[in-house]
Design goal:
five-stranded antiparallel sheet; 22% strand; alpha+beta; globular
């Protein structure tokens, strides 16, 4: 034990215990910051021989140990020298004590996996006479410096805290926004501890409605968002502010099911909307705290888009649910071939049975007459916007990406009719599309009542007579018939139900994204599992679990 710092090495795992941060200019480890392990810049290189090749196990252990010890001690300059970006690391590490007001730190590394070392941080935050413990886990990676050849910590803001991104910083003080108590439709309190996927939404609701709801500020540790219009993320509360009550449309029971369902896959998200009102009943994603795909993703939705394409076909007089269509194994559009999955074909399909089997060629061949009228490139655009409300600047109470169906040309037109090309959607968009098909009219999704701040909801024209009934007929057949691709996934769902599968090919991905959308009674839900493969296999069970929790 030296200068109050204890470094214990047991089976390759060490722990650093420090009595304080920022209170002593002493060096606790021999060689800390010298050219042996430091040297994040060329000027620190003292040897003409530059080491190359992967970092060794010994280098990983030595560099990570010295970096974490220096950080735990509060010696930001020494720790920064042990990174490959001293200029960015220094101020960030200094801010850990000076801005975040961390006064004690215990950092316990785990066993390295390759060149990555995980660790837990148990800290004490003190501000305004108030003190509170704070713990979390993060990781670092050791790399070889490109010019010095030294083993260095590959610097990223997430080294300090896993939720920190470039341009963001930690701060402790009087909170910028008033506290809130968000409640679900039945008055149950919603917290990010119980519903981790709601963390970003709750922060945004607080930013937007805290003062309106009569809340007061407290003392907190938070992440300053890199975007000027983004919500700060609260990490620790030292003193609670008086919360203002903010009502939401969420349903705690459905939200709990959504939280459980998305954990089945590493990158998955789901949203649920009530068709009769547009109220958002659940929204969740895994990993929680990461990019919120449920409301922000902008990716191809695959064959779930055939709901909109089918509506367009019916409204333009190109067919009806029970009218005959053609479903060959492949079709060529302007010289570009399109195929069905495994090149299947159907001898005498109707639009309903082609929809149930997700026949790509049937939906591409059906738009031939539109091409002769120079309407093929814009018909789907008009349908999605005018009747399904896509891209119409939704005012949900939190930020959302509202879908995009742009005009297309050439082969992209055919691709768009089966949910590929330039079409971009997320689960909230697709849940809304399904809700519109079921309800017969677009009702903009929302998560807080519009009278809370006088927002103006987006609107769209009602689906013409009979279109909704035919769409529901096709969705029901797909989820209930022996040949429907949604039947297996929806088998455990009761009530009046329907569904549609989708698989979207993504450039550079070996496996397609898995999509599924469906409804049961007065609840519609859609899910995306990135690189999940077939829609009924991955995304389908996620949607089914959410629907089972509904009415």
């Amino acid at each position: 034990m030296r200068s109050g710092v204890k470094v214990a090495v047991v089976g390759g795992v060490f722990a650093v215990v420090v009595g304080g941060v920022g209170y002593g200019a002493y060096n606790v480890l021999d060689g800390l910051g010298d050219s042996g392990v430091g040297g994040g810049t060329d000027s620190k290189a003292t040897s003409s021989e530059v080491r190359t090749g992967p970092v060794t196990e010994d280098e990983i252990a030595e560099t990570s140990e010295k970096f974490l010890a220096a950080w735990a001690k509060g010696d930001a300059a020494a720790a920064a020298q042990l990174t490959n970006n001293e200029g960015d690391a220094g101020p960030a590490l200094t801010g850990f004590s000076e801005s975040a007001h961390v006064t004690q730190a215990v950092i316990t590394p785990g066993r390295a996996t390759g060149s990555t070392v995980p660790y837990t941080v148990k800290a004490t935050v003190s501000y305004g006479g108030k003190t509170k413990p704070w713990s979390y886990a993060s990781k670092l990676t050791v790399v070889r410096g490109l010019t010095t050849g030294h083993a260095l910590v590959d610097w990223a803001p997430s080294v300090i805290h896993p939720d920190l991104d470039k341009g963001e910083s930690l701060e402790t003080g009087e909170s910028k926004t008033a506290s809130i108590e968000a409640v679900d439709r039945n008055g149950e309190v919603l917290s990010k501890e119980k519903y981790p996927s709601l963390g970003g939404i709750l922060d945004e609701l607080r930013e937007k409605y805290g003062q309106k709801a009569g809340g007061t500020t407290g003392i907190e540790t938070w992440i300053n968002n890199a975007n000027a219009d983004g919500a700060d993320q609260t990490l620790l509360t030292l003193v609670e502010g008086k919360p203002g009550r903010v009502p939401t449309t969420l349903d705690a029971k459905v939200q709990a099911a959504a939280e459980t369902a998305v954990k089945k896959y590493d990158k998955s998200s789901v949203a649920a909307v009530e068709p009769s009102t547009g109220a958002i009943r659940a929204i969740a994603g895994n990993p929680a705290g990461g990019f919120e795909s449920a409301r922000f993703a902008a990716v191809a939705p695959g064959s779930t888009m055939k709901i909109v394409t089918a509506a367009m076909i019916i409204q333009n007089g190109l067919g009806s649910a029970n009218s005959p269509v053609q479903c060959p194994s492949d079709v060529t559009w302007l010289g570009v071939p399109f195929h069905n999955l495994d090149n299947f074909s159907m001898p005498h399909p109707t639009l309903k049975t082609a929809f149930a089997r997700s026949c790509n060629t049937a939906f591409i061949k059906a738009i031939g007459p539109l091409d002769q009228k120079d309407k093929a490139d814009t018909a789907l655009v008009d349908e999605a916007s005018q009747y399904f409300g896509i891209g119409r600047n939704w005012q949900a109470g939190v930020k959302t990406f509202d879908g995009d169906v742009p005009a297309s040309q050439g082969a992209e037109t055919a691709a768009s009719y089966i949910g590929q090309g330039k079409i971009r959607m997320n689960p909230l968009n697709m849940a809304s599309i399904t809700a519109t098909a079921v309800n017969g009219r677009f009702l903009q999704p929302y998560i807080v009542p519009k009278d809370l701040d006088g927002r103006t909801f987006a609107t769209a024209a009602p689906l013409p007579g009979g279109v909704s009934a035919q769409l529901k007929q096709m969705l029901r057949y797909t989820a209930n018939s022996g040949e429907g691709t949604a039947t297996q996934a929806m088998a455990s769902v009761g009530g009046d139900k329907g569904g549609k599968t989708g698989s979207a090919e993504i450039d550079g991905h070996a496996t397609s994204d898995s999509w599924f959308t469906g409804f049961s009674n007065d609840l519609a839900a859609a899910a995306l599992v990135q690189s999940g493969g077939h829609g009924g296999t991955a995304a389908g069970p996620v949607v089914a679990e959410v629907l089972r929790a509904g009415p």
